[in-house]
Amino acid sequence: MKKEVVERFISYAQMDTQSNEDNETCPSTPGQMVLAHKLVEELKEIGMEEVQVDEHGYVMATLPANTDKDVPTIGFLAHLDTATDFTGTNVKPQIIENYDGQDILLNKELNVVLSTASFPELAEYKGHTLITTDGTTLLGADNKAGIAEIMTAMHYLIQHPEIKHGKIRVAFTPDEEIGRGPHKFDVAAFNASYAYTVDGGPLGELEYESFNAASAKISVYGVNVHPGTAKGKMIHSAKIAMALHLRLPAEEAPEYTDGYEGFYHLSSIEGTPEFSKLQYIIRDFDREKFEARKAYLSAVVEEFKNIHGEENIVLEMKDQYYNMREKIEPVRHIVDIAHEAMENLNITPIIRPIRGGTDGSQLSYMGLPTPNIFTGGENFHGKFEYASADNMVKAVNVIVEIAKLFEQKA
């Protein structure tokens, strides 16, 4: 199982599937469709049924029930794309057998070191097989580790028909990293009662609470004049943008918050005297506080419009997803089953809110309650990303155990 899940993961990780929020197509990049078709072929090879991919890159397949019991259909999902924060081109995964607990030199030429001082959790992985980057790209364990684990789990169940289970559906979706994963997902066609995204991080993560989330783009228009003759004429859009940003509470940013604390995050900024653009994400677990954050940003923008002109400051803000706890609490038993599955495998469940996005947030509001379970990856979205092959195997076992428990409890 370990060999299989690692080989699958590495083959997926080497494919460039970064999404692109500036592209309105679905999928937003062609590499995602290439991976989708690869997965279709692999699903057919292992014996899955009803395998299909639609024109938007959504892959679905079925593992039929092998029990006479009336078991709810459950699903397992992962996403095809990787994050936009750091390059995912030319990924070269490195395998470190029997990790010794010391600093890891990812790239000698560039002196990129995965250090125990910066990442003290590395000590927990002594003796593990680690998969790292070469220090020049992200790894893509978010979420290709999840894809590999679902594929390996389905293959294992097919090879072991003595393990009784109900009908299982799997799906691989595009564009999760840019918030569009479920936008064209056909919940009715998927036809599952409940599902799990395999999109978490370290061993034991089990999540059913997520942020309420919005995105905001503020465009600032100025007037550029030669600096030698600019007095009384230049309107410096970049300075206006900086002043606007400073009106947001500095301590309510990602680098100062954790747990259930929300934030404003300036995800990108670009500017010239003529034109500037601020990109934000707004996050809060509490719906009232979430709405208050959006209202405050709107009020700041209105204030700057009054000063600099209505037409010179433009705010585009839209909700992305909501806290899925509201939809999962009424069916809390699906969280309890995942909790029990982990305990059965001597894994300590870690239940905490997701301080990030997951397709499950939107899917839960679309009628498919979808908590999230771990993949075994760490440091997602950057060059220090890595995954434990040992914990990836444990994720495979959790998927299998969840399938078993649904059948046993039916």
Automatic annotation (TrEMBL):
Zn(2+) 2 binds at residues 142, 177, 381. Its EC number is 3.4.11.4. Keywords: Aminopeptidase, Cytoplasm, Hydrolase, Metal-binding, Metalloprotease, Protease, Zinc. Its cofactor is Zn(2+). Zn(2+) 1 binds at residues 79, 142, 199. InterPro entries: ArgE/DapE_CS, Bact_exopeptidase_dim_dom, Peptidase_M20, Peptidase_M20_dimer, Peptidase_M20B. The active site is at residues 81, 176. Belongs to the peptidase M20B family. This is Peptidase T. It comes from Paenibacillus odorifer. The gene is pepT.
